[in-house]
């Protein structure tokens, strides 16, 4: 896995909140809570969830451990909030990418390409969201899995529309959707900022690859 690169406030907020906004939802969305989430994301990216302590997070946020507990009951709750918000943001981006497209081919290219670019531009947060999942409680895992199913559904719906329109040839829609999303998510694992592959190039390549994998053959 590539070496960690520092997370910035822009990186995290762009991934967990609407553009130009602050995180919403039922959890505390105060400026202090946001600062704690930024600190937690930075600590998890640098050290991994198991090795990160509440004291580490508090230090990065410029608070005492007690100051963290005012807003979040545990570091697991922080991981959950990052995961929940990250998944919800990714779902919304996919829905937006598919909206108002002229056909299923264009929609699929936009969805997979955009999802791949997101995991390049936010690769550190993407690694946290995807690869620290096992450390969530059963209840929190279930909620995040629900969001993952919504993401799967967006892609599956586009694939079905493409099959119905004669654009795609897909035998197993669910498995194909999973394969395409997994391909995009894996970008977070290997992406290195400043490398040969830019987020824009990844978007183009992966979007086109997705279409080629499902395009109906001309016989």
UniProtKB/TrEMBL annotation:
Domain HTH tetR-type: 30-90
UniProt keyword terms in alphabetical order: DNA-binding
A UniProt-annotated Pfam family: TetR_C_24
DNA-binding region: 53-72
UniProt GO MF annotations: DNA-binding transcription factor activity; transcription cis-regulatory region binding
Keyword DNA-binding: yes
Superkingdom of the source species: Bacteria
Signal sequence range: none
Name of this protein: TetR family transcriptional regulator
């Amino acid at each position: 896995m590539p070496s960690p690169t520092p997370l910035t406030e822009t990186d995290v907020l762009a991934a967990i909140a609407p553009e130009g906004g602050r995180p919403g939802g039922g959890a505390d969305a105060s400026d202090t809570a946001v600062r704690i989430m930024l600190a937690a994301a930075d600590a998890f990216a640098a050290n991994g969830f198991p090795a990160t302590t509440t004291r580490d997070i508090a230090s990065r946020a410029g608070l005492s451990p007690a100051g963290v507990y005012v807003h979040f009951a545990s570091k697991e709750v922080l991981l959950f909030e990052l995961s929940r918000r990250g998944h919800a943001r990714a779902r919304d981006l996919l829905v937006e990418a598919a909206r108002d497209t002229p056909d299923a081919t264009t929609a699929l290219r936009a969805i997979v390409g955009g999802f791949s670019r997101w995991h390049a531009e936010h690769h550190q947060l993407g690694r946290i969201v995807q690869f620290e999942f096992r450390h969530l409680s059963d209840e929190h895992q279930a909620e995040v899995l629900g969001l993952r199913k919504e993401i799967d559904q967006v892609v599956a719906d586009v694939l079905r529309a493409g099959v119905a329109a004669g654009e795609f040839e897909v035998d197993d829609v669910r498995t194909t959707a999973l394969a395409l999303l997994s391909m995009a998510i894996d970008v977070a694992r290997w992406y290195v900022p400043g490398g040969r592959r830019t987020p824009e190039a990844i978007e183009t390549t992966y979007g086109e690859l997705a279409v080629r994998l499902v395009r109906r053959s001309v016989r």
